[in-house]
Amino acid sequence: MTDLSSQSAARARHGFQTEDAALRPIAARVDAGQRLSFDDGVALYRSGDILAIGWMANAVRERMHGDTAYFNVNRHINPTNVCVASCRLCAFGRKKGQPGTYTMALEEAWQTAGSGLTEAVTEFHIVGGLHPDLPFEFFMDLVRGLKLRYPKVHIKAFTMVEVAFLARIGKMSVEQALLRMKEAGVDSLPGGGAEIFADRVRHIICDHKIDGGEWLETARTAHRIGLKSNATMLYGHVENDEDRVDHMLRLRALQDETGGFQTFIPLAFHPDNTALAHIPKTTGMMDLKQIAIGRLLLDNFPHIKSYWQMVSPEMAQISLRFGADDIDGTVIEEKIYHDAGATTPQGMRRADLVRLITQAGRVPFERDTLYRAVTRSEDTFTVAV
């Protein structure tokens, strides 16, 4: 296989080169470590020079992380697909009573968390539908039961959308709900439900969810009480370049304020089985460009994740040279994006992730959810503190 590290070093020796004049001042700012503007972000999207954009993003990525590439051993748990929302972007949620609905009993969810594993997971990733009938305490009991049975496993649970919904179900403020979740054993929050913050877009794709401002305010509250979170952006549907840049700059502004975001995760829209099935799927060009621009604009985010379930393991591997420093984890069973037509594997072995990273010329680093080093001994693990 070609030595990608040698190629990267050769590019660095020759310096930045592009025929796109709009990219040259941006490259100068990137080289100087200066913050990029809204107009810079739009110019990056409008450029066709993906190699030049990737070169800049890789320079920032290597400045921050060297050759390290992060992954974890995690498991997704989706307790229910019953959802009161009617998001046109979603193939996972079902109305109560529709064919194909499911809701796990607590014992079933606890069993699912530990079933089918030969590797000790360090993270449970828990998201699901907005069920109209499940009480707030159901989800607290779910978390408490997991903590009791798997005390060493980090629980990353409930998107900002779910938090706001559960607060309403429980007749309490968002802050009160988050404090109750933290007390029950929630250790951090995933970044889903952000989609695109622009009102014009949300009215088309997810009009039944909280708006962009409410998503950001919920994240602000979580960070204030000491819960870290991730942040996502769903791209490749009805949004435009300006919408994407606006989304990321609003995340960047909140990160300046709270420092609570760990990772930015661009999510490629999968249109199959949704109300937007007529929209073409994202291309590899778009996927790589989004990873790279995310790294360039979000200068205060420690990590950029290439979510292999969405873009394929092969594209995630390439993206480690286009700004990404993390390719997520083993997952075991992923439902939400596969219901929307994803054809990637539903899970991966730890050894597969190590191989993908190594063959990309990067150095694998097994992390926990908080990016601390994990040391393994057979089927147990130790987390550096």
Reconstruct the topology from this structure:
Elements lengths: L3 H11 L8 H9 L6 H9 L3 H16 L2 E5 L1 E4 L28 H9 L8 E4 L9 H14 L4 E4 L2 H10 L4 H11 L3 E2 L9 H7 L6 H13 L3 E8 L5 H18 L2 E8 L15 H14 L5 E2 L3 H4 L1 H7 L6 E4 L6 H4 L10 H10 L3 E4 L7 E4 L2 E4 L2
Parallel strand pairs: 1-9, 1-10, 2-3, 3-4, 5-6, 6-7, 7-8
Antiparallel strand pairs: 11-12
Helix pairs in contact: 2-4, 3-11, 4-12, 5-6, 7-8, 7-10, 10-11
Overall description:
This protein is of the alpha/beta class. It folds into 2 domains: about 5-65, no CATH class; about 70-385, Aldolase class I (TIM Barrel, Alpha-Beta Barrel), CATH 3.20.20. The chain has 16 helices and 12 strands. The chain has helices spanning about 5-15, 25-30, 40-45, 50-65, 105-115, 135-150, 160-170, 175-185, 200-205, 210-225, 240-260, 285-295, 310, 315-320, 335-340, 350-360; strands spanning about 70, 75, 125, 155, 190, 230-235, 260-270, 305, 325-330, 365, 375, 380-385. It has a 4-stranded parallel sheet. A 3-stranded parallel sheet has the order 9-1-10, with helices on one face. The protein has a 3-stranded parallel sheet with strand order 2-3-4, covered by helices on one side. Helix 7 packs across helix 10 (about 210-225). The two termini are about 35 Å apart. Mean pLDDT is about 90; it is low at about 1-15 and about 335-345.
Bulk shape: globular
Unreliable stretches (pLDDT < 50, length at least 5) are 1-13, 334-344
- Provide the CATH architecture of the largest domain: Alpha-Beta Barrel
Helix and strand composition category: alpha/beta
The tally of beta strands, per DSSP, is 12
Number of helices: 16
**What is the N-to-C order of secondary-structure elements (H for helix, E for strand)?**
HHHHEEHEHEHHEHHEHEHEHHEHHEEE
Major beta-sheet overview: 4 strands, parallel
Proportion of strand residues: 5-15%
Q: CATH top level of the largest domain?
A: Alpha Beta
The residue-averaged pLDDT reads 89
Measured distance between first and last alpha carbons = 37 Å
Q: How are the strands of the biggest sheet laid out side by side? A: 5-6-7-8
Round the Cα radius of gyration to an integer and report it.
20 Å
Classified in CATH, the superfamily of the largest domain is Aldolase class I
Query: How many independent structural domains?
Result: 2
Instruction: Please estimate the helix content.
Output: 40-55%
CATH topology of the largest domain: TIM Barrel
